[in-house]
Amino acid sequence: MVGELEFEKPVTELRKKISELKEFTSQSDVDLSSEIEKLESRLEKLESEIYTNIKPWDRVQIARHPNRPTTLDYIEHIFTNFFECHGDRYYGDDDAIVSGIAKFRDYPVTVIGHQRGKDTKENIRRNFGMPHPEGYRKALRLMKQADKFKRPIICFIDTKGAYPGKAAEERGQSEAIAKNLFEMAGLSVPVICIVIGEGGSGGALALGVGNYIHMLENSTYSVISPEGAAALLWKDSGLAKKAAETMKITAPDLKELGVIDEIIPEVKGGAHKDIRQQALNIEKVIGDSLKQLLELSGEELIQHRYNKYKKIGEVSFANELLGVK
């Protein structure tokens, strides 16, 4: 089955069996309702066991699911009157980043996010969600515009990382990312960042300096991919599963470390199972965050952002010194 995840196979097979029995019952005079009822009860129990004990590597696979909703999917369901803006006014446009103006519950906001494709053709156009420097400069242009007109900024993070190619380096990839970090820290409007898929390295961080950073339950946020970490640490990318467990890249781990503010629950099996419901979950968190941040002045927002990043790692470092696990 396309997009089927390894740990979900027992659930998929049981669902298939139930479906076959229902079809057989409808086409014959044999009553299998009691057997179907038992299997459905077993399915419910199996789903509960699997989806409440998801391992870090399983979450990585869900985050990478080909049908996982993208920035444009959420824009369609959460915002209205979206007007996309293109170009960085220096070099060109980058389809790996989508940015524009929209309304959130009739309140004007600026929306920026990484955008990957859902098929080969679109992935090539979007560069597989890996931005060039012009993508980050486009994002920064929209952020400064939002700051000027006092519009809150909503960022959706979903990238393996910034594009590492020669052309991107020639056009100042590192400088573009560094400038975004610097400028985002000083924005006088609310900035809410949401990791919706993979949040990889500086490519993710360039849209990730916000007053609040939220993560979908099965997303990842890390300095490097599990495969990359395994190749560096153990000279074997095949140990990616071990790396995923060691790196603390999942939402529960990052919440505990104080890196993120809130875990946004996903529908059973992952966001791709029900985009509409997942969008409602995200909308609620954005609404709650905006309500709190809109009460702060520009200076208070900057201070709020500063305090957030100053506290990251304090508890874990103190515990390490004290030997507390």
- The CATH architecture term of the largest domain is Alpha-Beta Complex
The amount of beta strand, in percent, is 15-25%
Provide the residue-averaged pLDDT: 89
Biggest sheet statistics: 8 strands, mixed
Per CATH, the class of the largest domain reads: Alpha Beta
Counting DSSP E segments of at least 2 residues, the number of strands comes to 8
In total, how many domains does the architecture comprise?
Answer: 2
Query: What's the overall geometry?
Result: globular
Q: How large is the radius of gyration? A: 22 Å
Regarding quaternary structure, how should these chains be classified?
single chain
Cα(first) to Cα(last) distance is 41 Å
Structural class: alpha/beta
The SSE order reads HHHHEEEHHEHHEHEEHHHEHHH
Figure out the total of helices: 15
User: What is the CATH third-level topology name of the largest domain?
Assistant: 2-enoyl-CoA Hydratase, Chain A, domain 1
CATH level 4 superfamily of the largest domain: 2-enoyl-CoA Hydratase, Chain A, domain 1
Low-confidence stretches: none
What is the helix fraction of residues, given as a range?
40-55%
